[in-house]
Amino acid sequence: QVQLVESGGGLVQAGGSLRLSCASSGRIFSSVSYIMGWFRQAPGKEREFVIARSFGGTTYYADSVKGRFTISRDNTKNTVYLQMNSLKPEDTAVYYCAAGSGSISYAVLSSRRSYNSWGQGTQVTVSS
């Protein structure tokens, strides 16, 4: 397991953008089965999948964020980013990054069970 630390959350108006960062204590995408993802949890709701990326760059998105969110990485900084554009009030949540391993499929990358390292979360609030 690695230590993950998210940053970049905050308050933004609807239609605005934010970029979240997830810094890892270890080398990211260190094996072909390595995966990293972002999940979010709104008050009173379960933690849900947002976006994830495999070692080879295959990316899966939740339908609610397609066309608005992207995931990228900087291997030199061991950091993964979540770029969020055209934010909506319903995007308000605590956002968590996670690292794990698995085969490349939507079912695997979108499942919390595929990840064994989690960050502490960062709050994103979108005002209307």
Task: Based on the model shown, name its key terms.
128 residues; mainly beta; 7-stranded mixed beta sheet; 4-stranded antiparallel beta sheet; 11 strands; 3% helix; globular
Layout: helices, strands, pairs:
Layout: E1 4-7, E2 10-13, E3 18-24, E4 34-41, E5 48-54, E6 59-61, E7 69-74, E8 79-84, E9 93-101, H1 106-109, E10 115-118, E11 122-127
Parallel strand pairs: 2-11
Antiparallel strand pairs: 1-3, 3-8, 4-5, 4-9, 5-6, 7-8, 9-10, 9-11
Description:
It is a single chain. The protein has 128 residues and is mainly β. 3% of the residues lie in helices and 50% in strands. The mean pLDDT is 96.
Output the helix-strand order.
Answer: EEEEEEEEEHEE
Helix content bin:
under 10%
Instruction: Name the average pLDDT.
Output: 96
How would you describe the shape?
A: globular
Largest sheet: 7 strands, mixed
- For the terminal residues, how far apart are their CA atoms? 38 Å
Number of strands: 11
Number of helices: 1
Strand content: over 45%
Which structural class matches the secondary elements? mainly beta
Q: Which runs of at least 5 residues are low in confidence (pLDDT < 50)?
A: none
Overall radius of gyration: 13 Å
